[in-house]
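Private note to self, pasted from the team thread so I don't lose it. Backbone tokens:
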């Protein structure tokens, strides 16, 4: 049975939070200017207390361009991971952050989840997703 956490995405149950701590490749879906979906593999970290998902990215990537094109209100996006019958999706509004402290926090969380630091990249930014809905099947 699918479980929806739309009412309180910052307080999903323990198995859901644990699933987001396991090492999994994820996907990020952004919208192109013509409205079609752009889906790419990414590494994602999730902070349910802050209701934030983070994706480290190169500032010249298509995903970053799509998020920036949405303007100040942010871009509607989704990140998803699958492991057999288990799956989890986080939906929300994304913004590109360039502040060194935000990038450092994203890198720290990446290293914690993926058990290695991201490759050095002087063009790194972080896509922060303000999570509004958490869906999944455990």
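Design output:
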């Amino acid at each position: 049975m699918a479980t929806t956490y739309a009412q309180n995405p910052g307080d999903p149950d323990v198995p859901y939070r644990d699933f987001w701590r396991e090492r999994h490749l994820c996907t990020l879906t952004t919208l192109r200017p013509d409205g079609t979906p752009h889906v790419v593999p990414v590494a994602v970290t999730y902070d349910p207390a802050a209701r934030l998902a983070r994706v480290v990215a190169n500032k010249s990537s298509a995903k970053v361009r799509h998020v920036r094109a949405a303007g100040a209100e942010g871009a509607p996006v989704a990140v998803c991971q699958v492991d057999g019958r288990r799956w989890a999706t986080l939906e929300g509004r994304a913004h590109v952050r360039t502040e060194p402290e935000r990038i450092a926090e994203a890198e720290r969380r990446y290293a914690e989840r993926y058990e290695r630091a991201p490759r050095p990249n002087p063009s790194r930014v972080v896509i922060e997703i303000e999570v509004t809905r958490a869906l999944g099947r455990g």
